[in-house]
From TrEMBL:
Organism: Phorcysia thermohydrogeniphila
Record's function text: Removes the formyl group from the N-terminal Met of newly synthesized proteins. Requires at least a dipeptide for an efficient rate of reaction. N-terminal L-methionine is a prerequisite for activity but the enzyme has broad specificity at other positions.
Lineage: Bacteria, Pseudomonadati, Aquificota, Aquificia, Desulfurobacteriales
Protein name: Peptide deformylase
Gene3D superfamilies, alphabetized: Peptide deformylase (3.90.45.10)
Keyword terms: Hydrolase, Iron, Metal-binding, Protein biosynthesis
Length: 176
């Protein structure tokens, strides 16, 4: 069952998610529903607070919406960036800010420490899009959305554009 994506400025998006301490069937079900939701919306990553659950859970699939979808899913419980190098400016979007895309500066390479669904620790390294997705989703767990990474002027302009996009979306939704 797909979950409802929380749309900015929903308060849950500004809250820091809590550490997962129970690795059980409920957690597995949440992860399955998050993948289903992400695939339905054609996103490449999703953090639990984007579906209203304040737990440190992230799912990523760089092949979302492609032929290989579901073949290389990434599940991160309690992820934490332990190393970041380089810098890259590239466009980002977010399922919680539909239709808005802006260039955001991120590390080009990251190493992340996390746990799997059984609570076992592991590390994952990423460059390019994977590094960006890891940073973007971990930001969500810390109550940060990508527009918070913009300069004050860029952020104000992005929010003005987003308000217009949101009004258009609501108008179209009302016509259905």
């Amino acid at each position: 069952m797909a979950l409802q994506i929380r749309i900015y400025p929903d308060e849950v998006l500004k809250k820091k998610a809590e550490t997962v301490t129970e690795f059980n069937e409920e957690l597995r079900e949440l992860v399955n529903q998050m993948f289903e939701t992400m695939y339905e919306k054609k996103g490449v990553g999703l953090a639990a607070n984007q579906v209203g659950v304040l737990k440190r859970v992230v799912v990523i699939d760089l092949d979302s919406g492609k032929e290989n979808q579901g073949k290389n899913p990434i599940i991160l419980i309690n992820p934490e960036i332990v190393k970041a190098e380089g810098e890259e400016l590239a466009e980002e979007g977010c399922l919680s800010l539909p239709g808005l895309y802006k260039k955001v500066k991120r590390a080009l390479y990251v190493k992340v420490k996390a746990q799997n669904l059984d609570g076992e620790e592991f590390e994952i390294e990423g460059e390019g899009l994977l590094a960006r997705a890891l940073q973007h989703e971990i930001d969500h767990l810390n109550g940060i959305v990508f527009i918070d990474r913009l300069s004050p002027l860029q952020r104000r302009l992005a929010l003005e554009k987003y308000k217009k996009l949101k009004r258009e979306y609501e108008r179209k939704k009302g016509r259905r």
